[in-house]
Structure prediction request, 298 residues.
Amino acid sequence: MTTLLLLTSFIFGSIVGSFLNVLVERIDTNESPFKGRSHCPYCKKTLTFWELIPIFSYFLLKGRCSQCKNKISIQYPLIEFLTALFFLLLSLRILRLPLIKAVFLNLNPSHFLILLNFLFWFFWVFVFIAISLYDIKKYLILTEVLIPAIVIAAFWRVFYGFFYLFKKDNLFLSFSKFLGKESYVFGNYSYFLSLILGIIFSFGIIALIVYITKEKAMGWGDAILAFFIGLILGFPESLIALIIAFLIGGFSSLVFIIFKKKNLKSYLPFAPFLSLGALLVMLFGDIIIKSYLSLIYL
Prediction:
């Protein structure tokens, strides 16, 4: 059963990744990502079913269009694979949660909302990958996806929180803590206080950097993305995500400079690092904090 669930999540993730590619490519055109058949960007040939199989089609076609023989961007299979991988890892993260089997086996209104919350987690993954890909390609934040995601997240997080207060079910709270029970290291916070502090710290830190550097280091789009991270992760999870983002971003910048791919004046899109920091907390937050505690208590 577990193997089937993981395989399904990987396949579904690859399909979502395929749609994500179409979304990012068509967002700046008049084409709808929901209408019209996929086609070659060069000769406009409508793609057949076997040319649309996520990941595998790229290798079956040897990276070229079957008609005009122009090269197909490696972006397509890469994004499909990354999305599938993150969906798989998120499924493993959910299965690692305590008492998760009880939620699946004993379905009631409370457990149904918990499972629905997990579906939103997959949506957050989709948003982060879409935002990152667009920022890498265009050096802009995809507000057409981010703003609706913030509205949806705000509605869901508030609704979920009020249901938790009404039911007083500790499972609700435990399943919203990506750092696990070890999050007590940063203090104990109620659901809504964690939510508010997450937004204030995440948005505030990035917004302050944007203001001080006059948008030379980061833009207001990054601050809006940080707002989203604070909204879905809360505190202290969002703070850990920012720390990870700055560490990976700083290391990556250093590598680019060493290999002369960038210089000190070059702009490096930061949305992918913010997204990666949030995703790592979602997927491995409990492992990260346990590893940190094991180091400081050696």
